[in-house]
Amino acid sequence: MKNTVRVINIDSLQDAELAMAQLGAHTSGISIMKEKALFKVLKIKGISSPAANILKQEVLSLGGEAATAHGVINCSVERSDILVFATLKQLSGLIEKLKQHPFGLKELANNLQLSIFNYQLIPAPLKIGNREFGFGEKTFIMGILNVTPDSFSDGGRFLDADRAAEQAEKLVNEGADILDIGGESTRPGAYPVSADEEIRRILPVIKWIRANLPVPISVDTRKASVAETALNAGADMVNDVSGLRFDPKMAGVIAKHNKPVCIMHCQGDPKTMQENPFYSDIISEITDSLEESIEIAKNAGILCEKIIIDPGIGFGKTVADNLEIIKHLKEFRVLGRPIMIGPSRKSYIGALLGKKEDNRVAGTAAAVAVAISNGADIIRVHDVAEMLDITEITDAITRRQDHGKEKSEK
C-alpha cells in the first residue's frame, strides 16, 4: 500500500478538529492538540530592542521562532518590527510569559491576546433595519445605487427618481441584501457637492425604497446633516468613506439614531486621493487607521457591535495597493469587526485588463471570489445578479464545513 503524503491547509480550529476527527482521533485528544495544528506568523510593529530580545528568547523557549532587525541583538537599533512564528498553543504560552516582563511587554501581551482572539472570531449577528445579518454563514451583497451625474461607473443613469426606483427594485430582485444610496460621487478627482444638493438627490429615492421595498437602506455620505436627514427618512445605516473623519458631527448623529455604520479607509480626499498615494506598510497602516476610526465611533457612543470596516479599495491606493489589500484581506480580522469590500468595476481592473467600466464584470467577479475566500463578509457591487452566483459558489467552497456543522447541530 502506498503511503500517500498530503500537505493540508488548516486555517482555523474547526479545520484542525475536522482533520483529526476524520482520522478517528478521540475528542479529548482533539481538544488538547487542535491549538498545536494552527500555525501563525504575527508581525509586531516598532518593538524596542530590549523588549524584542526578551520576546525572541521567550518564543524560542516554547519551540517557536522570531525574526528581528540585525541590530536588535546588540541594541544598536532603537526599535525593530518583529515576526513571530508559532502555533496557537505556543502563542498562548508566550502571552502568559510576556505578562511578567517590563519594557511594555505586558501591554503587548494584552494586544496579542486581543488580536488573536479577534482574528478567530466570527462577529456577532448585526441587525440592519428589520433584518439580522449572521456573519460567517454567508456573504452578503450591498447593491450600489448612485444618484449622481458623475460617479465613475453609473453616473447620470439614475438621477431621475423614477429610474432610480426601477434600479432599486431590480437590484433587490436580483438578490441585494442591502441598498447603498449615494448622492455625491467619491470617484478619484471628484468635486464635492453641498449637503443640500446631496439631500435633494437621495431623499426621494430613500423615501420610495422605504415605502415599497423590504430591504435595509444604507446612505453613502460623509456629511452629518445628510446622514441625519437620510436616517430620519428611513435609512438603516451609514456608509462613511472618510471613516468618520470628514465631518466631526457624523459619529454623534449615528450614535443618536443607534444605527450601524461602515467606516472606510481613505488616504486623502476624493479630489486628491489618487495623486501619488504612498504607504510604507499598507496593511498595517490601514489597520491602524481603521482602529482609530473605531475609537472615534466608540467615543461618540456607537456600540462596537454596530461597526463594519472597509479597507477602501481605490481610495488613495495604487493598482498594486488594491491587489495587496484583496490578497491580505483576512488580516483585518484582528479588528474583530465584519469586513466589507467594494472591488466593483474599479480602475485597478481596467488597468490590469484594459477594459472600460461596463466590461469589468468578470474582473470584478474574480476579485469578489478571492475577497470572500480571504474573509469578506459583505461585498459592495454594481452587478448584483452576477455577483450573487459568485458569492454562492465561493461560499459553498469556503464555508462548507461551517454549513455542515450547522446542519448537524440542528
Description:
With 410 residues, the protein is an alpha/beta fold. The chain folds into two domains: 83 residues, Alpha-Beta Plaits (2-Layer Sandwich), CATH 3.30.70; 284 residues, TIM Barrel (Alpha-Beta Barrel), CATH 3.20.20. It is built from 15 helices and 13 strands. It has an eight-stranded parallel beta sheet with strand order 11-10-9-8-7-6-13-12. β6, α6 and β7 form a beta-alpha-beta unit. α7 packs parallel to α8 and α11 packs across α12. The longest helix has 19 residues. The C terminus is likely disordered.
CATH architecture assignment name of the largest domain: Alpha-Beta Barrel
Q: Supply the CATH superfamily name of the largest domain.
A: Dihydropteroate synthase-like
- Distance N to C terminus: 39 Å
Question: How many distinct domains?
Answer: 2
The total strand number stands at 13
Q: What is the overall silhouette?
A: globular
Task: Report the radius of gyration as a whole number of Å.
Answer: 23 Å
Main structural class: alpha/beta
Main sheet overview: 8 strands, parallel
Number of helical regions: 15
Which percent range fits the helix content? 40-55%
Q: In the CATH scheme, what's the topology name of the largest domain?
A: TIM Barrel
Instruction: Please trace the helix and strand order, writing H or E for each element.
Output: HHEHEEHHEEEHEHEHEHEHEHEHHEHH
On the 0 to 100 scale, the average pLDDT is 92
Unreliable sequence segments: 402-410
Query: Strand order of the main beta sheet, please?
Result: 11-10-9-8-7-6-13-12
